[in-house]
Amino acid sequence: MDTRVITVKPQPAKSMQEELRELASTLSDIVRGIRTAQEPIIESQQKVPQATEQLERITRQTEDATHRVLDMVEHITARESEIESLLKDLKRALPATYFRNNSKAKAVIERIRECAGQNQSAAYDIMDALQFQDITSQQIDHAITLLEQVQSRLQSVLMELAGGTQEEIPAEKRRERAYDPNAHFSTENDKDKQFSVDELVDNLSRQMKKD
Amino acid sequence: MSQKVLVVDDSPTLVKFVTFSLKSNGYEVVGASDGMDALEKVSNIEGAVDLVITDLNMPNIDGYELIATLRKTPRFAKTPIIILSSEEEEEDKVKGQKVGADSYLVKPFKSSVLIEEVTRLLKK
């Protein structure tokens, strides 16, 4: 029987140790990498609620300020109406011949009435412009919703990295928002815009009657 | 006796603005913050509501659902309804018309345009 002797050269124990050391070092690098990646994600995730809170504060403050201006405009228009009414009373209180003999006084009264009317009209323009607050609050609500989506995605990433040990932010903390994401403030071509809507509504009404 | 208008919008600014415009022109106003609030207020109002002005995007019950619900009740079957919305898409206007709105104003709008529309619909 032919016997062959195969000699297996034993691997040096040092090399195995080296490999294990390398593996441990790689694992340590991975863990460090995960930790390094987690830190900015955790930081960003914690900053999102701060940002949403800040945006909500802006909405509340602009709303309060807008309401104060609206109240003031309301008082201005009431006083302008009162001025017009007082001028009428003054005219009635004076003898009919007074203005015939005093054309300057008549002109002054007319000018006061004119100014009151112009102020009234300007007050309504201010009031119309204050609708910006409604439009910007819708835009802010849209931005908040986007931030909350980012927060939710970051949370998913964190949960993956931490193996599901990351605490989830309860849904009830978020308030329900209803807004138009395309809301924009522009008072240009108001009449054209309204005309197209009226036209559309008229056409539809005619169509529905036919049907 | 002044005519009563129900104003529904989740923006307190818009409700205040529309209320002021209407009151300055002699209308009585009932404000509501969304569709659900509007339905609750309507059930507590004695007498007629002559006109309804509503937003579309609102929490709880939106404008479309509110209009559809109101139209199902005999009390609101013929009441003029105006939609106020920042949605400019034709699709929204068509949908509003289909659920029963009479008019559609795009935000922002001039108070004078709103008053003209209210007067026109109440004269019909």
Description:
- The complex is a heterodimer of chains A (211) and B (124).
- With 211 residues, chain A is an all-alpha fold.
- Helix content of chain A is 77%, strand content 0%.
- Chain A is built from five helices and no strands.
- In chain A, helix 1 packs antiparallel against helix 3 and helix 1 packs antiparallel against helix 4.
- Chain B has 124 residues and is an alpha/beta fold.
- In chain B, helix 3 links the parallel strand 3 and strand 4.
- In chain B, helix 1 packs across helix 5 and helix 2 runs parallel beside helix 3.
- The radius of gyration of chain B is 13 Å and the shape is globular.
- The model of chain B has no long low-confidence stretch (mean pLDDT 93).
- Chains A and B meet through helix 1, helix 3, helix 4 and helix 5 of A and helix 1, helix 4, strand 5 and helix 5 of B.
What is the fold's blueprint, element by element?
The complex is a heterodimer of chains A (211) and B (124).
Chain A: H1 13-93, H2 98-101, H3 103-129, H4 132-161, H5 190-210
Helix pairs in contact in A: 1-3, 1-4
Chain B: E1 4-8, H1 12-24, E2 28-32, H2 35-44, E3 51-55, H3 63-72, E4 81-85, H4 90-99, E5 103-106, H5 111-123
Parallel strand pairs in B: 1-2, 1-3, 3-4, 4-5
Helix pairs in contact in B: 1-5, 2-3
In short:
The complex is a heterodimer of chains A (211) and B (124). Chain A is mostly helical and 211 residues long.
What oligomeric state do the depicted chains represent? heterodimer
**What does the average pLDDT of chain A come to?**
82
Q: Proportion of β residues of chain A?
A: under 5%
Q: What is the alpha-carbon Rg of chain B in Å?
A: 13 Å
